[in-house]
Design goal:
binds uridine-5'-diphosphate, single chain, 4-stranded mixed β-sheet, 19% strand, 11 helices, alpha/beta, 7-stranded parallel β-sheet, Rossmann fold
Length: 328
Amino acid sequence: MRCLITGGAGFIGSHLAEALLQRGDTVTVIDNLSTGRVENIAHLKEMKDFTYYIDTIMNKTLMIELVEKCDVIYHLAAAVGVRYVIDHPLETILTNVGGTEMVLSLAHEYGNKKVLIASTSEIYGKDRPGKSVFNENDDRVLGPTSISRWSYSCTKALDEFLALAYFKEKKLPVTIIRFFNTCGPRQTGRYGMVVPRFVRQALANEPITIYGDGKQTRCFTDVSDAVKAVMLLADVQRLYGEAYNIGNPANKVTINALAKRIKELTGSRSPIHHIPYDKAYEKGFEDMRHREPDITKLKRSTKFKPEIEIDELLSRIVMDFKHKPKFT
Ligand code: UDP
């Protein structure tokens, strides 16, 4: 299979590239390095079935060439991370909507190629009374446009609408994947993700910064499980025109417990600080208290079973940070 990965030098994209190469696929990556890093794919550069381009997916001439030459597109290029999205609201909207439109239109025009579109649990939006588990048909509940966080949710929703419209009207074979708190080696905390932030802080014996009261919960998914799910979904033809949650409900922890466990695993002397959301992000910032994926649909369709438990997931990240020249 000839695979094109947009955003392939990013955290999830680079792991996907590695797994596809391992099973014998040919992989081409395009990444503009807005949040991706060349180091993420450095170990793949010498492989004969691997090619990469440092360029934007808005470069239509190049994208036509790449789409023509592939059988399947994994569209992961996007502005991601709560911190990044708040700091770059314009780029978030333009990249996430314009980039996806480019990918879908070229996929249609140049051979009706199969496309997997990366989406997010942010799609579901805010907390609502008595609800913490989300399935693919749940309503989306969002806050006002003055809060940047919700623009990310909206751009990804628009991506999903676009993909579904291409499926309905143009018969484009698309599958939507909604990632829930995916973590693993190579993820940086620079754009807001909590696990690499805490691990870096713990290893440097700096304060571990919990936002809010820390009683909020998340379910963390190891990137190897997420990649496995993506590859399974790509291989099943009858699943087109649908969205799938990808996550690991078994790895549910409060952010307080997460901080404590990371401190234990690293033997850190870091104090634990609680910081109000207004200070951590922006005035009026809204966090979700609880967010857990319902993965019944994914399991039914692909026989997927997440394998990596929270301690193993955290240990892998700690090891990764320890091997980096300096903690980033
Ligand atoms: N969080 C935190 N400290 C940090 C970064 C994040 O306490 O340095 C919290 C954040 O407020 C949220 C949870 O950790 O409740 C997960 O945050 P992340 O940005 O990783 O993912 P998301 O909010 O998209 O689930």
